Amino acid sequence: MVDPKAQHCPNIAYRPITPSDLQVLEKIHADLFPIRYESEFFLNVVNGRDIVSWGAVDRSRPGSQSDELIGFVTARIIPANESEIADTLRHDPSRIDQTLVYILTLGVVEPYRNLGIATSLIREVTKYASRIPTCQAVYLHVIAYNDPAITFYKKMLFKCIRRLSNFYYIQGQHYDAYLFVYYINGRRSSCSPLELVTAMTTCMRSLFKFLAAKIWKNEDKKIPKWSKCKESSCFLSKQKKRVVTTEGAGCQCV
Ligand SMILES: CC(C)(COP(=O)(O)OP(=O)(O)OC[C@H]1O[C@@H](n2cnc3c(N)ncnc32)[C@H](O)[C@@H]1OP(=O)(O)O)[C@@H](O)C(=O)NCCC(=O)NCCS
């Protein structure tokens, strides 16, 4: 595939995955993942049977390629009480209809990486999940050695809640997995003692910073205004420095 970053400015669009995507979808999965998925999985994706999905295409590619998948995400809605993250949710025993969105697969073909495509695809999933009134969270597993995906999910504010030993068994070898969760509308269970301590430490730190800033501000009032601006302007570019001196606008420009 031609490198879109070098050749042209891609025009990425997002659309539902349809039966015409079957072949390409299978090929990309085979290229990107160490696990082989059954044909039934792909048929369910393209026909929207129990699976929701979004595809990414590059409209600037020539001819029929302009509608060919270059990225995808697939997910399934599952009952919350049957899931392995049920213990982390704010559980209401009277509601058996609570659900989760489980991400099955996510991928972007190599030449289109680092363009924010996976970010947009995951945003589609979280937007979709937040529109479901019963949905508590979006979650997924990542194989422990997949550093790009781990960095990616952390950046997307997914929380790594567990390391699962020997979760995957691939070609005769066991691999650990991480469990990542994105809670919808703050639907999390109450904090663990460790989390409470962490939250309190963060709070204390913010309070300390606030007080320190206040003290600094009071000290600062004693300094003549012009000298304060002079000091801060040393962090500015030459052009901005000029603004300081010509307009005399003082601290505004910092
Ligand atoms: C993981 C993957 C989906 C990311 O797709 P992408 O479209 O390149 O991701 P984005 O451009 O939206 O990246 C967003 C952020 O993710 C992180 N990220 C993405 N690729 C990364 C890499 N190779 N190394 C480190 N961080 C990476 C970065 O923090 C990046 O933000 P930044 O560009 O501001 O630094 C893609 O690398 C892929 O398809 N990998 C193979 C399949 C796979 O592992 N799927 C996930 C299985 S759970």
From TrEMBL:
InterPro entries, per the entry: Acyl_CoA_acyltransferase, GNAT_dom, NAA60-like
Record carries keyword Transferase: yes
EC number(s) stated in the UniProt entry for this protein: 2.3.1.259, 2.3.1.48
CC annotations in GO: Golgi membrane
Residue ranges occupied by any N-acetyltransferase domain in the UniProt entry: 12-185
EC category: transferase
Keywords tagged on the record: Acyltransferase, Chromatin regulator, Chromosome partition, Transferase
GO biological process, one term: chromosome segregation
UniProt GO molecular function: histone acetyltransferase activity; protein N-terminal-methionine acetyltransferase activity; protein-N-terminal amino-acid acetyltransferase activity
Coiled coil: none
Keyword Acyltransferase: yes
Catalytic activity annotation: L-lysyl-[protein] + acetyl-CoA = N(6)-acetyl-L-lysyl-[protein] + CoA + H(+); N-terminal L-methionyl-[transmembrane protein] + acetyl-CoA = N-terminal N(alpha)-acetyl-L-methionyl-[transmembrane protein] + CoA + H(+)
UniProt-listed CDD domains: NAT_SF (cd04301)
Family membership noted in the UniProt record: Belongs to the acetyltransferase family. NAA60 subfamily.
PANTHER family to which the protein is assigned, alphabetical: N-ALPHA-ACETYLTRANSFERASE 60
Full protein name: N-alpha-acetyltransferase 60
Organism: Nelumbo nucifera
